[in-house]
């Protein structure tokens, strides 16, 4: 670290608010887990399994592109840094509300993990789309940016990514739509359905 002149900046004690982005994620995660724990009676083993599923969801989110090649949209995730490989969370089945009261506790935890995913996505994605009108200039989406596509019914742990191939301005001169190339297809999306990744939006 010394050879690379790495400079460390630490938060002062008792000032978690200075953590900004990651502290907001911690707060959202804690709030959702508290709500889920109130709904269900969880043993220690069930709670540890739910925490492990939650950890995998959080650490599999894309944070920055790894390649400038337009044909290579996958992005760097915290799991890649921690495990040196991707750890994609693929749900092993479809779980319904009735599973929350199942005698098979594994199905119960999978249902709670799906519920966590749906609630966390609704809180996390808007933090990537902050647009404060007329207050300060913010970075617009540009051609070749890797973006997260906001889809309504995405399975747990799936982060649909695409690369912007064309930007389309509205009559007011601001970007309103983008043509996006995903792994399987090309589509046009409104700017409200696209999110820059964490490292790009900073």
In words, what does this structure look like?
This protein folds into 2 domains: 16-128, no CATH class; 146-201, no CATH class. With 202 residues, the protein is α+β, with helices and mostly antiparallel strands. The model has no long low-confidence stretch (mean pLDDT 80). The protein is built from 5 helices and 7 strands, in the order ααββααβββββα. A hairpin with a 3-residue loop joins β5 and β6 (186-190). The strands form 2 sheets. It has a 5-stranded antiparallel beta sheet with strand order 6-5-4-3-7.
For the termini, the CA-CA separation is: 24 Å
**Uncertain stretches of 5 or more adjacent residues:** none
User: Got a strand count?
Assistant: 7
Q: Helices and strands, in N-to-C order?
A: HHEEHHEEEEEH
The 3D shape can be described as: globular
Beta-strand fraction estimate: 15-25%
> What strand order characterises the main sheet?
6-5-4-3-7
Structural class: alpha+beta
What is the helix tally? Answer: 5
The total tally of domains equals 2
Task: Look at the structure and give the mean pLDDT.
Answer: 80
List the helices and strands and how they pair.
Blueprint: H1 21-39, H2 44-59, E1 64-65, E2 75-76, H3 78-83, H4 105-128, E3 146-149, E4 161-169, E5 175-182, E6 186-190, E7 194-196, H5 198-201
Antiparallel strand pairs: 1-2, 3-4, 3-7, 4-5, 5-6
Helix pairs in contact: 1-4, 2-4
In short:
This protein is α+β, with helices and mostly antiparallel strands. The chain contains five helices and seven strands, in the order ααββααβββββα. Strands 6-5-4-3-7 form a five-stranded antiparallel β-sheet. Strands 1-2 form a two-stranded antiparallel ribbon.
